[in-house]
Structure formats: C-alpha cells, structure tokens
Amino acid sequence: MDYQQILEQIHAEIVPTLPQGRIADYIPQLAHVNQRSFGMAVCDTQGRFASVGDADERFSIQSISKVFTLTLAMQREGERLWQRVGREPSGTSFNSLVQLEFELGIPRNPFINAGALVVTDVVLSHLGDAKAALRDFARRLSGAADVDYDYSVAASEARLGYRNSALANFLKSFGNLENHPEAVLDAYFHHCALAMSCGELSRAFMYLARHGSNSDGAVITPGQTKYINSLMLTCGTYDAVGDFAYRVGLPGKSGVGGGIVAVMPGMFSVCVWAPGLNASGNSLAGTRALERFATLTGQSIF
Fold it and tell me: CA-to-CA distance for 117 and 216, rounded, in angstroms?
C-alpha cells in the first residue's frame, strides 16, 4: 500500500478546510498556533513510515497523553484500577462537574478529565515523579530522546485551570484521590503539555497496533492492549465517539491541541494534527482526514 501517495492526496483535499473550526484559545498558549498547520504520519507493523505537511512539528498533545498515563497505571494496578474509574462513554462534556457529583466521585471513564486525574493519581502513588515517568515513557515509545514538556503551556493551564481544580477537589472529597489535589493537578497539567509531532506519536502508539509490544519489547499484555483500544473507540473522542466511530471506524484519541491518533490493531498507527476544533473539541480537519484515510486504505475495524 502506497501510504505516501494516500497522505499526499488527503493533504491536498484537506487544505481548503483548515480555516474552519476554532482553536482552543481558552488555553492562552494554544491561541497562538497557526490554524493552517496540518501534519499527518502513519507507521505500520511492517516498518513502513510515511508523512506529509507539518508532520515533524511538535504540538501540545493535550488529552492524547491520557493514553500514556492509562498505560502506566494499568501496568501497575491491573484490574484494581477499575474500582476507581469506570469504562463507559460519558455522553457529557469532558470536564463535567455535574456528572462526577451525581456518580459519587467515580469518573465515567479514564479519558474525561476527572478520570484522567484519578489515573494520574495512581501513577503518582506508584512512581512518585509522575512528570518524569510520563516524559520518559513517551521518549521510549517514540524513540525521540528529546521529547519534553512545553512548560509555558503547563503554566498557562495551571494559571487558568479552575474547572480541573474543582474536579480534583471533588474527587478528593469523595476519597478518590490518594495524593494532594495540587500534586495531582501539577502532574496532570504537565502531562497535557507534552509536545510531540505526528511522526513521533504515530511511532509511540505502535504498541497498541502490535498487541502490547514496542520495538524494544513488551509494554503491556495483549489483553490490556485490547482494553485500551476498546476504550479509545468508545471514549477517546469526548462526546463525539459515535460520530467518530461511524465516520472513521478506528480506535482513536484526540486532544484539544488539534491532534488525533488512531490505531488499526495488527496493522498501523496514524496521527493527524490540525488545530481548528469542532464543537466537541476534536480536530475538525483531522477527523475528516482520518475518515478519508480509512476510506482510501479500505481499513477499519468494521
């Protein structure tokens, strides 16, 4: 399959749509990103790699990082993790306070903000320095030794992260955080501020296409890989998971920085970046690009 030709065709089709959508300007440092940016990269289990556009430019991966923290937590907690966080689609905004209170401090899934805070708390309890753990894990998976946080983005999120602070304190009040909320929030804000490129993310997610193994060995078990891919399919794109599954047909995880990573188990990992977001907080052009990729390659899980 000629991935390069497919990506170039998608790029040409998508460029006119890039001005559409809205950048996540509620995080001040993201408001300065060029909305006409577009990158896309694919890596497959045969060792093939292709990229187009701004695929080498690093961006704030935001909630895509939740897949990495979930993996670290599952490595150490296994099935016990699900006593503290659910596995169901939320059907509401990713930062809903109402749902968390109604469900007595048990977040609906690990990819909404409340769930990611619980997962971060687990990583913090097991590894102490959750910031270094996540950064080093991303470096291992991507093969890029200089992957790091965008500290200006982390500071921007911390300065204005009132709703996430409320969620963390809610969780603590229900006894679902072991660590101090401020410590959990500090790690969480940094995790979201991790800066990676499409090329790096497509390589980093290959363990989910290889049944849990990276190029340097096992990361998680095949069963845990299935769990994470299923959670990406049902919960990975906020409250638009049904539309994303309908249009793209691949497990995926998005972030408000405009990135989306999708995985075809046994075959490939693909990442797209386009900063303009739709109403659900997913990349508008990125979703369209992945839909075209699934169509042109003839690959989806359905």
Answer: 29
Q: What is the number of structural domains in the chain?
A: 1
- DSSP assignments along 196-254, one per residue: E-HHHHHHHTHHHHTTTEETTEESS-HHHHHHHHHHHHHHTTGGGHHHHHHHT-S-EEE
| pTM over 0.90, yes/no | yes
Please check whether residue 302 lies inside any domain of the structure. no
Which of 194, 198, 289 has its CA nearest to residue 250? Answer: 289
Phi, psi of 40 (to 5 degrees): -155, 140
Q: Of 3, 141, 171, give the one whose Cα is nearest residue 71.
A: 141
pLDDT, tens only, 201-245: 999 999 999 999 998 899 999 999 999 999 999 999 988 999 999
**Residue 26: CATH number of its domain:** 3.40.710.10
List of long-range contacts for 161-167, beta carbons under 8 Å, 24+ apart: 161/185, 161/189, 163/95, 163/97, 163/113, 164/95, 164/113, 164/117, 164/188, 164/189, 166/97, 167/95, 167/97, 167/100, 167/113, 167/114, 167/117
Separation between Cα atoms, residue 32 and residue 242, nearest integer Å: 31
pLDDT digits (tens, 9 = 90+) for 33-45: 999 999 999 999 9
Q: Is residue 263 part of a domain?
A: yes
